[in-house]
Design brief:
By secondary structure, the chain is of the alpha/beta class. The chain has five helices and ten strands. It binds NADP nicotinamide-adenine-dinucleotide phosphate.
């Protein structure tokens, strides 16, 4: 048994995780809802399959033979999409289906990507509860994400060893892969935290290759070169894979 199954493999984080996994020699099962929409996704070592992260049978089927899974699925890809079709239980369903389906498949590790809106701001409130820093119209999505994290925590002692990596600030599509990141806790770090999708992927695959965090949520972030930071308050240094 080996290799990684990536849910949401056609998205921004999913593509970055797939590339990072391949760069380290992992075989990847790339899960999308409609393979016909992703003609360029299948490459050497990447098998594209149809699947649904909210369906435990589907998860068990596509994860068969894989030792680890990554959850980068989002039902909401940008404000222009609106919220009419948002299922507030989406991330809870995904958490249940992943924990149940991966257990059946025998995949023991799950790395999920979280949302910075449910980290705590300077005043101790979740960022999503402060309309001055987080747009009220996106709050339903943040609440849905947060419910998924709560479900993982509720079910934390099962056979699947999960971790949620939450980007603590701006997540830049197309940003540079530096191979460096920092790991923090529940609070948004001071300064202007930022991370490229490529470095998020480095953190994700690190937690599969050498798991350090177990059944908990942590924040991951970096700072732009030269930006004011409070690095000394922000936990351990990420590993450098350059
Ligand atoms: N700073 C932050 O905290 C921050 C910033 C950005 C993103 N994020 C989080 O990071 C994660 C990844 O975001 P992203 O930017 O990579 O999103 P994205 O580019 O929109 O990709 C999400 C993918 O999910 C797939 N998907 C939707 N419903 C699905 C289902 N039922 N089963 C399987 N796949 C499904 C979609 O593919 P199909 O439509 O083809 O199925 C899409 O490719 C999300 O949890 C997002 O909320 C956090």
């Amino acid at each position: 048994m080996g290799g990684i199954v990536v849910f949401g493999a056609g998205g921004r984080a999913g593509r970055a995780v797939t590339a990072e996994a391949r760069g380290r020699g992992h075989e990847v099962t790339a899960v999308v809802r409609d393979p016909a929409r992703y003609p360029g996704l299948a490459t050497a070592g990447v098998t594209v399959v149809r699947g649904d992260v909210t369906d435990a049978e589907s998860v068990a089927r596509v994860a068969g033979g894989r030792c680890a899974a990554v959850h980068t699925v989002s039902p909401f890809s940008g404000p222009e999409q609106g919220f009419d079709s948002l299922d507030p239980t989406f991330f809870v369903k995904a958490a249940d289906a992943l924990l149940d389906g991966l257990a059946v498949a025998g995949a023991k590790r799950l790395v999920a990507v979280g949302l910075g809106a449910n980290l705590l701001g300077a005043d101790g409130r979740p960022v999503m509860d402060d309309p001055a820093v987080f747009p009220a119209e996106i709050r339903p999505f943040a609440l849905a994400h947060t419910a998924g994290l709560a479900r993982l925590r509720e079910r934390g002692d099962g056979p699947v060893d999960w971790v949620m990596l939450t980007p603590a600030g701006f997540l830049e599509h197309g940003g540079e892969r530096t191979g460096r990141y920092r790991v923090g806790g529940e609070r948004v770090p001071g300064g202007e935290p930022w991370l490229s999708y490529a470095d998020l992927a480095v953190a994700v695959i690190d937690e599969i290759d050498r798991p350090v965090r177990h059944r908990e949520r942590v924040s991951v972030f970096s700072f732009r070169e030269g930006a004011g930071t409070t690095w000394d308050q922000c936990g351990e240094r990420g590993k450098n894979h350059i």
